[in-house]
């Protein structure tokens, strides 16, 4: 038996595993119990209205993109080969704090948790005037580089996209985070395929960019994204269309669908970066009318 297998098993007086008293079971159950379903974008549309706090095992499994049986095995402390990507998704979905994350990682892997801090950003490299402009937007706005690493974002972006707390790459979130497929309506056609087309274009344009090629490898490690990589429906446009609307769900807005436009801007002093503003399509249509 491996160290990680031994470490997540306890025994009662009869020498049999007692899952109700295992540390990992308590940690994950408590985390599930304190979640507010209304804070999870797309939850109501997927599972229906829910007034009581807490998520069931099957609800958590759906958000993780795995079977209920697989997630239940983790919560019961059963020794399995749990991948780093799966455990990190558990951390995001259940909003584990640092101590809880360290506990879950050690009890499943038998070693200290790796440095899981978000990719470093270069906020200091963003001109103060540009930061003020982004902060002043009432709509979600952010600045990213050609690898889609976030360099700066405003409070509206953090409000609508909770994933920002756990990662700072837009492409990774859209294409590989299971919970993105719950928030983004028509994920494959309206979100994933256009972004894969952009990623392929950038990867071919900057073949010597090691960070960009690493990003491609990380995206292709996801089976759903890999299946779309050679899709015959990939658009030609290497950037988001300013006229194509997309739909998504927002935290605390239930099953209400929000139609948005993605407006990109380039700053002359930062030619390899671009700013994105997520604009409600309804307001755009009202102005046009």
Please explain how this structure is put together.
There is one protein chain. A hairpin with a 5-residue loop joins β1 and β2 (150-153). The protein is 45% helix and 11% strand. The longest helix is centred in the C-terminal third of the chain and has 19 residues, at 187-205. It is α+β, with helices and mostly antiparallel strands and 289 residues long. The protein is built from 15 helices and five strands. The protein has two domains: 3-109, 434 Repressor (Amino-terminal Domain) (Orthogonal Bundle); 123-288, Beta-Lactamase, CATH 3.30.450. A five-stranded antiparallel beta sheet has the order 2-1-5-4-3. α4 crosses α5.
Write a brief caption for the model:
This protein has 289 residues and is an alpha+beta fold. The chain contains 15 helices and five strands.
Please give a handful of descriptors for the protein shown.
Beta-Lactamase; alpha+beta; 11% strand; globular; 5 strands; 2 domains; five-stranded antiparallel beta sheet; 289 residues; disordered N terminus; DNA binding; 434 Repressor (Amino-terminal Domain); MLTR_LBD; Cro/C1-type_HTH
Number of strands: 5
CATH architecture of the largest domain: 2-Layer Sandwich
Backbone CA Rg? 21 Å
Task: Tally the structural domains.
Answer: 2
Main sheet overview: 5 strands, antiparallel
The quaternary structure here is: single chain
Structural class: alpha+beta
Distance between the termini: 69 Å
CATH topology (level 3) name of the largest domain: Beta-Lactamase
Which term fits the overall shape?
Answer: globular
Strand arrangement in the largest pleated sheet? 2-1-5-4-3
Instruction: Quickly count the helices.
Output: 15
- The amount of helix comes to 40-55%
The sequence of SSEs as H and E is HHHHHHHHEEHHHHHHEEEH
Q: What share of the residues does DSSP label as strand, in percent? A: 5-15%
Mean pLDDT: 86
Low-confidence stretches: 1-15
CATH hierarchy, class of the largest domain: Alpha Beta
GO molecular function: DNA binding
Pfam families: MLTR_LBD
Protein name: XRE Family Transcriptional Regulator
Region (Disordered): 1-22
């Amino acid at each position: 038996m491996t160290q990680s297998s031994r470490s997540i098993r306890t025994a009662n007086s009869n020498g049999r595993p007692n899952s109700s008293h295992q540390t990992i079971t308590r940690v994950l159950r408590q985390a599930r119990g304190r979640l507010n379903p209304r804070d999870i974008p797309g939850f109501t549309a997927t599972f229906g209205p829910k007034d009581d706090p807490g998520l069931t095992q099957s609800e958590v499994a759906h958000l993780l993109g795995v079977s209920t049986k697989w997630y239940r095995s983790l919560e019961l402390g059963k020794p399995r080969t749990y991948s780093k990507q799966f455990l990190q998704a558990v951390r995001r979905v259940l909003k584990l704090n640092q101590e809880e994350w360290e506990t879950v990682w050690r009890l499943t892997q038998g070693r200290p948790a790796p440095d899981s801090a978000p990719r470093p950003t270069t906020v200091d490299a963003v001109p103060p005037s540009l930061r003020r402009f982004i902060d002043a937007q009432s709509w979600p706005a952010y600045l990213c580089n050609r690898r889609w690493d976030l360099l700066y974002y405003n409070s509206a972006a953090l409000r609508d996209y909770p994933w920002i707390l756990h990662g700072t790459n837009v492409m990774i979130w859209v294409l590989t985070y299971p919970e993105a497929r719950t928030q983004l309506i028509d994920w494959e056609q309206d979100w994933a395929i256009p972004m894969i087309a952009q990623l392929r274009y950038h990867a071919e344009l900057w073949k010597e960019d090691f960070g960009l090629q690493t990003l491609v490898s990380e995206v292709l490690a996801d089976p759903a994204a890999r299946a779309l990589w050679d899709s015959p429906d990939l658009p030609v446009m290497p950037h988001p269309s300013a006229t194509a609307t997309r739909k998504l769900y927002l935290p605390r807005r239930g099953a209400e669908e929000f139609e948005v436009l993605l407006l990109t801007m380039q700053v002359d002093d930062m030619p390899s970066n671009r700013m994105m503003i997520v604009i409600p399509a309804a307001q755009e249509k009202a102005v046009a009318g």
